[in-house]
Write a structure and sequence with these properties.
The chain has 121 residues and is mainly beta. It is built from no helices and 11 strands. Strands 2, 4, 5, 6, 9, 10 and 11 form a 7-stranded mixed beta sheet that branches. A hairpin with a 6-residue loop joins strand 5 and strand 6.
């Protein structure tokens, strides 16, 4: 059974940092791209970041560029999202994703259950 399990969410003050982790299991993920999406209350789900299978290529939403960093450890089947200089507008449920169907910013085959990130002002 394929599983993506996120952790590391929580409550942080504006300007603070959090590191999200995603543990993948059930199949090999070292040969597929992975990423993160988020959804705030009352808003559409949006792309946050993606990383190629090798880790060489990364893509970020403009809203998080230069503040968030995505990375992966294929030996551990893990992907991470380091979030710095957090803003209240970063408050959302963050989802780990794997295996894009076409574009990195499009649909994915696998989704985690999500982890809540709340940034207070």
């Amino acid at each position: 059974q394929v599983q993506l399990v996120e952790s590391g969410g929580g409550l942080v003050q504006a300007g603070g940092s959090l590191r999200l982790s995603c543990a993948a299991s059930g199949r090999t993920f070292s040969n597929v791209a992975m990423g993160w999406f988020r959804q705030a209350p009352g808003k559409e789900r949006e792309f946050v970041a993606a990383i190629s299978w090798s880790g060489v290529y990364t893509d970020y939403a403009d809203s998080v560029k230069r503040r968030f960093t995505i990375s992966r450890d294929n030996a551990k089947n893990m992907v991470y999202l380091q979030m710095n200089s957090l803003k209240p507008e970063d408050t959302a449920v963050y989802y780990c994703v794997a295996a894009p169907r076409s574009r990195y910013r499009g649909e994915y085959d696998y989704w985690g259950q999500g982890t809540q990130v709340t940034v207070s002002s």
